[in-house]
Design goal:
Elements lengths: L3 E6 L3 H11 L5 E7 L2 H11 L3 E5 L7 H6 L8 E6 L3 H9 L3 E4 L4 H14 L5 H20 L6 E6 L2 E6 L3 E7 L2 E6 L4 E5 L2 H5 L7 E5 L2 E4 L3 E6 L5 E5 L4 E3 L2 H10 L4
Parallel strand pairs: 1-2, 1-3, 3-4, 4-5
Antiparallel strand pairs: 6-7, 8-9, 8-12, 9-10, 11-12, 13-14, 14-15
Amino acid sequence: MTVLRVVIADDERPAREFLKSLLRDFADVEIVGEAENGADAVEMIKETRPDLALLDLQMPEMSGIEAVKTLRKSQMPVVAFITAFDNYAVQAFELNAVDYLLKPVEKQRLGETLRRAAERLEHADWRETETEKIRNAASTYEESSGSEYLERIPVRQRDTIVLVAVDEIASIVADGELLHITTVDNKKYTINYRLKDLELRLDERKFVRLSRGAVANLDMISRIAPMPGGTYQIILKNGQEITSSRLQSKILRTKLLKL
């Protein structure tokens, strides 16, 4: 019996633990690594060379799709994306025959994914086929969902709803299940929403992830000060200061701090 070597990636620990508990019920599966973000998933895949990668689509800093797009064909495993229902993603995956699992993941559906992965591995050209399918799905997804960026965020305040213009937002900071929104003129609003889900609806050309729990408007960044340990202190035009994570600081250096 051939053992299927699997890597999983999800930024939420309970989701990873649940997935691992399901996988342990399959005798022909070995979990060879787990990651909590897309960048770590890429390194884990390169290091362990799994047969199958189960990747959360909506991870902070680097999504599941962005992660596998950085892999060379020789490094590509069979991939199945895990997502809360996202109509654009589902259409892209189905159109390009890329496997996916909807949250909450069901054991029977997971078993089908494992079976299909094993079947794909039997084909000599499976890496080439998998790479092409994923890149086509990524293009389809980006084209269909790219124009659906939020322009206003509705915030309930007692008996009224305030529409906060996205262009006036300086930062969004997570605090548990709450998101604290601060505008350029230091008005503050709170909504009950997950940061990684909201980030998907923000224009990535205008907003940048600073850490696991913070996103900032690029136009609102006035200064960036290096800190010990390879991180940065981000100073916004409204006077707000946010420290970037070590991982995100590497991305900031590449995206913002090079001519």
